[in-house]
Amino acid sequence: MDIKFNAISESKFEQYKDETDILLLAPQIRYLEEQILSKYNMDKIKIMIIDSIDYGLMNGEKVLTDALNL
To answer: What are the residue boundaries of the PTS EIIB type-3 domain, all occurrences included (predicted)?
Structure first.
């Protein structure tokens, strides 16, 4: 698979939104989901909050699987 990941702050999302297919939010910023949905046109972008256990265990394989199953 040809996948590109960018780890960015919410304030820089504007620069990457046009090249984003899936937006993964870390569990500690889940509260930003509604703000992001209302601020940006998310018609073409799927959004997922990373499971806190997978995040804590750094289970990248599970996070990737969950994201691809959206």
So the answer is: 1-70
